Amino acid sequence: MPDFVFSPPPVIAVPVVGTDALFPVRRIYCVGRNYLEHIREMGGEERDPPFFFQKPTDAIVRSGGDVPYPPITEDFQHEIELVLAIGTGGANIVAAEAARHVFGLAVGIDLTRRDVQINARKTGRPWEIGKSFDHSAPIGAIKPLDNALPTAGDIRLMVNGEMKQSGNIDQLIWNCEEIVSQLSTQYTLQAGDLIYTGTPAGVAALNAGDQVIGQIDSLPDVQIKIT
Prior knowledge:
- 14% of the residues lie in helices and 32% in strands.
- It is of the alpha+beta class.
- The protein has one domain (13-226): Fumarylacetoacetate hydrolase, domain 2.
- A hairpin with a 6-residue loop joins strand 1 (13-15) and strand 2.
- The radius of gyration is 17 Å and the shape is globular.
- One of its GO terms (molecular function) is metal ion binding.
């Protein structure tokens, strides 16, 4: 056994539906601007291809957990997303072969310090600080993939019982297969990677005390409380 200078951090893992086994998380990738209506509400260019950014692995919050209201923001927003859990790695994956690399699916929330993100973007600085912070990647249990990747299915988010976001997976500009394929040209994907695939319109601010529920047809909910 190696002699570490301090104890290594615990492995971050997500429950898997139908088993006591856990899915160990390696990296978290997120797709920016992948629903047309969200691009419009954020004032982006509709023809731009999606881009990718990352969150730290320990940003994961399991369903049922609490999310502390983060510092240095006054506009803390939710983004409901379908998450792809990679089970078999690879590079330069052909879109038609993407499904065999995906272990399962989950419901995730990309939490965002919107004001911080926008200010960084205006000043030409990286806006990682608006996206990649503590507790910013809540996720529900992962459901193993039955066969093909989904091409449709209702996706929605409610805050204190009020619907805030509502869309359908068929509104993805770049579908699940294309996302895996494109990302694999930029990074070699590995088992344990998670891909948050983008959010529909309706992103809005959260406040301390809010109860948040994210849902996608046939997948376990993700539920969090803002504290």
